[in-house]
Specification:
The complex is a heterodimer of chains A (420) and B (235). Chain A has 420 residues and is α+β, with helices and mostly antiparallel strands. Helix content of chain A is 53%, strand content 17%. In chain A, the strands form 2 sheets. In chain A, strands 1, 3, 4, 5, 6, 7, 8, 9, 10, 11, 13 and 14 form a 12-stranded mixed beta sheet that branches. The model of chain B has no long low-confidence stretch (mean pLDDT 89). The chains are: A alpha+beta (420), B alpha/beta (235).
Chain lengths: 420, 235
């Protein structure tokens, strides 16, 4: 019965009873519309929040030293100590589930403008890192490349410029790659320009305002010796950073004669908890949104079913006449189900389109209005969510028609046409 | 055309109601008969059984020599659609369909394609002088026009019999006379016609008047309508 002619017959019934159809369809339209708007808004907030921590690997831990608070093995408490490169080797060898580890050390200078190119200069943080650093704190590479293993092995005198430093030291459009700049009195060749993915998570100053050197080069040229200021590590995705953190601390305490229960000698923090909180929060928001959205949709569908039931009652005579002039039960069922299906599907699609349209406008307005730091961005529904919603609407359109259709075939022609 | 043998029908409610008590009736091919009786005499029930809208308890009903008994809904619908045309007191046109669409509707359930349907519907509307009204909705038509539309709808499937339930009940006497005139003309093309009425003036325009009383046929009056002046008003 799903031929074109049948569809026309059904469409006629819907189109010629506009008020009834609109009232019936409104619930579903509203349900889908709200679902789209809510879901998109939720995604907007999630996108906005996630952008704040973009480029940061969640399984990241940061370790730095403090003074000891317990006397141990003949040392008094209150001792200052420092970590060195061999500690990192030991950690890599002994603690499982570490994918990247990078020390970081900075050179402090009393010079006001410590970085010079040509006749321009500026003051920027100077730090040394290992290539693994890029895995842990992802940078956006604007030009050239990151520090690589050859730089480390050969103690090359190369450097990376932060975006801001590049813009201040070089002319617009000037290629900085291969140029020599003076950093704290020594010359380095620029091999790359980097920028941060976000300005919200930063350790040891903004990468945009720093000059990054190969760790080994810095050690050698600035007489840092073996000491490192702090180090970061990233654990593998399925490992718990908290466990790794604990093992690393234990190992460091053993290697540096620190009491196992010393709380202040080594400090650390990891981003896992923050990420977990974010993820939990957004999972909760999404669940809430779908419950509210589907609830609205459900009430819309019950509304359709309800109005269709009333309609069937109201249309007793029409259905009776159709039966009298030869409509089979099948014809009546098909008619009611198709009406319900067509109405809900149309209403659902209109709700979907209007919802997506409005959210697209909202998204455009928001992105034009404010800076990168907006907590709200790209409010849109995922394609799968849209398809899921559509399928739900179609199935429920059929379900909504079942009871009215059953009622309709209970109508006997004689009851309908009997004079009251 | 119609043969009823000892038809019994009881409605089972709080009090069982024996409506038809052994009806025996023959209606020949091409006859025009009327059924008269007071309300509660069982005339509407009889018409419903004739129209396969209701079933009966015992007895046999032959329509065009086919036994009509224990039919499924589908068989009944099919038989109604192909054999019987209905005309009702309150016309029972579908309000959101135009005159032409109303006439074409029975053909829709015969899976006749839209073009053919509308073409046939137009032919019948033309025959009843309603060509200009084809695109009008029922509420834009007068009572007589509505009844003519419903006659066109009853005839469009070329049924063997027409069952009319108080066809003039909602019409004034002048229009009633016109409608009866049309029914008579239709009958003269060979279509058997059964009319339920409580107006003697209507019954007098049929060949046979079946008087029903308390569920039995009281008597059958033969009548020659040709003696009547058909232009005379009925009431």
């Amino acid at each position: 019965m799903f031929d074109f002619d049948g569809l026309k017959e059904i469409w006629q019934t819907i189109a010629r009873n506009k008020t009834r159809s609109l009232l019936t369809a409104f619930g579903v339209f509203w349900g889908v519309f709200l679902l789209v708007v809510l879901s998109s808004t939720g995604n907007g907030f999630e996108n906005g929040m996630m952008r704040q921590v973009e480029g940061v690997t969640p399984n990241t831990g940061l370790f730095f030293t403090g003074t000891t608070s317990e006397p141990y093995k003949g040392y008094q408490k209150g001792r200052n100590w420092s970590m060195n490169l061999s500690d990192l080797e030991a950690i890599k060898d002994n603690v499982p589930n570490i994918v990247a580890i990078s020390p970081e050390a900075s050179v402090w200078t009393s010079e006001d403008k410590n970085v010079v190119y040509g006749n321009r200069s500026g003051s920027y943080t100077v730090k040394g890192v290992m290539p693994e650093y890029d895995y842990i704190m992802k940078s956006r590479i604007l030009k050239g490349r990151f520090i690589n293993n050859a730089d480390i092995a050969n103690h090359r005198k190369v450097c990376l410029l932060g975006k801001r430093a590049y813009e201040e030291l070089f002319d617009k459009d000037e290629n900085p790659l291969g140029k020599m700049i003076r950093v704290n009195g020594l010359y380095f060749q620029v091999v790359g320009v980097i920028s941060t993915y976000n300005t919200n998570v930063q350790i040891n100053g903004s990468p945009d305002e720093s000059v990054v050197l190969p760790f080994t080069t810095m050690q050698q040229l600035f007489s840092k010796g073996d000491k490192i200021d702090f180090f970061m590590l990233a654990a593998s995705d399925n490992a718990s950073i908290a466990e790794v953190e604990e093992k690393v601390k234990q190992l460091l305490k053993e290697r540096h004669d620190i009491a196992p229960d010393d709380k202040t000698a080594i400090s650390s923090f990891n981003l896992e908890e923050v990420f977990k909180m974010f993820k939990g929060l957004f999972l909760g928001i999404h669940i809430l949104i779908w419950i509210v959205g589907l609830g609205t949709l459900l009430s819309g569908i019950i509304g359709v079913s309800n109005i269709m039931l009333v309609t069937v009652k109201e249309r007793t005579r029409e259905i009776g006449v159709r039966r009298a002039i030869g409509a089979k039960p099948k014809n009546i069922i098909t008619q009611v189900l198709s009406e319900s299906l067509l109405l809900t599907t149309l209403a659902g699609l209109v709700g979907l389109c209007i919802g997506v349209g409005i959210m697209a406008v909202v998204g455009m307005v928001v992105s034009n209005m404010l800076s990168d730091n907006m907590m709200f961005q790209d409010p849109n529904m995922s394609f799968t969510a849209a398809v899921t919603a559509t399928i739900i609407v179609i199935i429920s359109g059929l379900l909504a028609g079942v009871l009215p259709a059953w009622r309709a075939i209970q109508i006997k022609a004689i009851d309908a046409i009997r004079e009251e | 055309m119609i043969r009823l043998e000892n038809i019994n029908k009881t409605y089972f409610g709080a009090q069982p109601l024996h409506v038809l008590k052994g009806i025996n009736l023959n209606v020949e091919d091409g006859e025009m008969v009327s059924i008269m009786g007071a309300s509660g005499s069982g005339k509407s029930t009889l018409l419903n059984i004739l129209g396969i809208l209701d079933n009966y308890d015992t007895g046999d009903y032959y329509l065009n020599d086919k036994l009509v008994k224990d039919l499924t809904e589908n068989q009944a619908a099919d038989m109604r659609n192909r054999m019987i045309g209905f005309i009702f007191q309150s016309f029972n046109l579908i309000p959101f369909k135009t005159a032409m669409e109303n006439v074409a509707l029975p053909l829709y359930y015969q899976n006749v394609n839209r073009k053919k349907r509308n073409q046939l519907a137009m032919e019948y509307l033309e025959r009843f002088g309603l060509k200009e009204w084809a695109d009008h909705y029922p509420n834009e038509l007068s009572g007589g026009q509505k009844q003519r539309v419903s006659m066109a709808r009853a005839l469009v499937t070329q049924p063997k019999i027409i069952l009319a339930d108080e066809p003039t009940g909602a019409l004034d006497s002048k229009t009633s006379a016109e409608v009866m005139q049309i029914l008579r003309e239709v009958n003269q093309t060979g279509i058997t016609m059964v009319i339920v009425t409580h107006e003697r003036g209507i019954a007098l325009r049929t060949n046979k008047i079946i008087h029903l009383k308390d569920g039995v046929i009281e008597n059958i009056e033969t009548n020659n309508p040709d003696q009547l002046d058909f232009n005379q008003e009925i009431k």
